[in-house]
Specification:
Layout (H helix, E strand, L loop, with lengths): L2 H5 L12 E3 L10 H14 L5 H18 L3 E5 L5 H7 L6 E6 L2 H10 L14 E3 L7 E8 L5 E3 L2 E7 L12 E7 L8 H11 E12 L9 E5 L4 E5 L7 E8 L2 E7 L2 H10 L2 E7 L5 H4 L3 H5 L6 E8 L5
Parallel strand pairs: 2-3, 2-8, 3-7, 8-9
Antiparallel strand pairs: 1-12, 4-5, 5-7, 6-7, 9-15, 10-11, 12-13, 14-15
Helix pairs in contact: 6-7
The structure holds S-adenosylmethionine (SAM).
The site of S-adenosylmethionine has 21 residues, from helix 2 and helix 4.
């Protein structure tokens, strides 16, 4: 039995042999459990310097955005094992970073790697999640890792809480910046989750959203080298069709993916009072291109999209 089947056994449709399971509608809640099973795969392949796109592109790009706003209080949504929480903690001006993720097997590693104690299991009801620094905004009763769960990275305090993007356990206007990296393309309920971002950001606060490029990486997209016609091109899959599925990203590793057009993100951000101030579509970095000739041939097609937005003051 594969890891994916085990975690998703309540699903009615079987996984497909071609490594893609189309949920035929919104993913069932159990899909989130796939992260619990596969956190180790993610940690090994994409963290602690293992992945060139993080090392050469994502980390510098995020750090640059945060440096320009010097957020005192920052929120990392879907923090995984905390690599970007620690990056944010290293940005000058940051006093407290809170990482949230629903996956216990990510949070336990986040605590370890941030140098925090692990004597309190995430989600078992330690100190109630508070706003950063206990600065007034009290949380709404989420499962927090404050105090004993806190770690230090480059001077700023880092704490973790077990929570989903759909329901952030923090009071309104608790943060100066929030970011989510490679999270929204794995979850349902974009509009609700972005409304939560708008709610917990203080007016003038910054949101940084990093995604697999929704247009150029839509399902079915990819480099085509047609030897018969002698053509090479990037094929785009059915971009306008929302797609909810589970993909075999490595042998026996099944991960939920939701494709939605870019306008869905931008319009949900606008509805949440998050107005776009910058967009980046960087070319894949050298460390990625060096892995295969085919990657280099497709170097003009970005894999990553960054949207940066500002939370408007009410009534503006
Ligand atoms: C691809 S990993 C990215 C982790 C981290 N942002 C990074 O860049 O290293 C996606 C993360 O999203 C988390 N996740 C899954 N469902 C979520 C949800 N509903 N709310 C927030 N995070 C979620 C997973 O547990 C996983 O840690």
């Amino acid at each position: 039995m594969t890891a994916g089947k085990e975690a998703g056994q309540a699903w009615s449709a079987p996984y497909q042999a071609d490594g893609y399971h189309d949920a035929g509608g919104p993913l069932p809640a159990e899909a989130e459990q796939l992260w619990e099973v596969n956190a180790g795969w993610w940690q090994e392949a994409f963290t602690a310097g293992a992945d060139a796109e993080y090392v050469e592109q994502i980390i510098p790009l995020l750090a640059e955005q945060l440096r320009s706003v010097r957020p005192g209080r920052a929120l990392d949504i879907g923090c995984g094992e905390g690599q970007l929480s620690r990056v944010a903690a290293g940005v000058e001006g940051t006093r407290h970073v809170v990482g949230v993720d629903p996956t216990r097997s990510q949070l336990s590693v986040a605590l370890e790697r941030t140098g925090a104690g692990t004597d309190e299991e995430p989600g078992t009801g330690g100190a109630a999640a508070r706003g950063p620094e206990g600065s007034g905004p009290e949380g709404s009763g989420g499962h927090g890792m404050s105090g004993r769960g806190a770690g230090e990275a480059a001077g700023a305090r880092v704490t973790y809480a077990r929570a989903s993007a759909a329901s952030l356990p923090f009071a309104d206007a608790s943060f100066d910046a929030a970011f989510a990296c490679l999270v929204f393309e794995h979850i349902e309920g974009t509009a609700g989750a972005l409304a939560e971002v708008g709610r917990v950001l203080a007016p003038g606060g910054t949101f940084v959203l990093l995604l697999n490029h929704p247009l150029l990486q839509a399902p079915g997209s990819g480099w085509v080298d047609d030897q018969i016609l002698g053509e090479q091109y990037w094929r785009i899959g059915p971009y306008l069709v929302e797609h909810h599925g589970v993909e075999e990203v490595d042998k026996d590793v099944w991960i939920p993916f939701v494709h939605r057009p870019l306008s869905v993100y931008v319009n949900a951000m606008a509805a949440a009072g998050l107005y776009l101030t910058r967009m980046e579509e960087p070319a894949p970095p050298e460390g990625f291109l060096a892995r295969a000739d085919e990657y280099r041939e497709a170097a003009a097609f970005p894999r990553l999209l960054m949207l940066r937005a500002e939370k408007l003051a009410r009534g503006r």
